[in-house]
Amino acid sequence: MKVLKGSNSVKASVRCDALILDTISRSDTYPTLQVADEQYFNFSNYLYHYAPATKGEIIMRGVLKDEAHSVFNGMATIQKYAQNSDSYLSDHVLLLSPDARSDSIPSLEIEANQVKASHSASVGQIDEDMIYYLASRGFEDVMAKKLIVEGFLEPLTSQIALSDLHDKFLKSIEQKWHRRGNNYDWITRR
């Protein structure tokens, strides 16, 4: 199962539960957030391993600007009968303004002793060294930031198998961020 979640609400709370019930089953969830203005988005994702030799991952990417706020609650639970299971949680957020905020709470609950389980989280702004590198290759500041944001989201957008849906998703991201004008001013506005 692969799930891509999206929302354009002003305030939203979404909960997604994945129960892996059969041996050698897999569940992958790839939520992507683009939160702006004073929007608030709370995403809770729970991954339950109930059978042996299962695999599951939750990989979240978010881009926030203005006074936006996101919260990620991720929980991977491996029951005692789910030996040899593999679980991974990841939440990475790029802040495009100093007033944007993101809270990440990845958690693991492991009851089995022969498993592989890990989690990671990061929240940060665009790395100035990346902008400098792209500028040294001839990219203007705004285009460099655009490429960095697109590259940041690419590990998840590349999971969309249908090209029409992939293109529609990328266009929706672009339209959301172009609301305030052209030339990716959402990247540079502070």
UniProtKB/TrEMBL annotation:
It holds the Pfam family SUFBD_core. InterPro entries: Fe-S_cluster_assembly_SufBD (IPR055346), SUF_FeS_clus_asmbl_SufBD_core (IPR000825), SUF_FeS_clus_asmbl_SufBD_sf (IPR037284). GO terms for biological process: iron-sulfur cluster assembly. Residues 37-152 form the SUF system FeS cluster assembly SufBD core domain. This is SUF system FeS cluster assembly SufBD core domain-containing protein. It comes from Candidatus Fischerbacteria bacterium RBG_13_37_8.
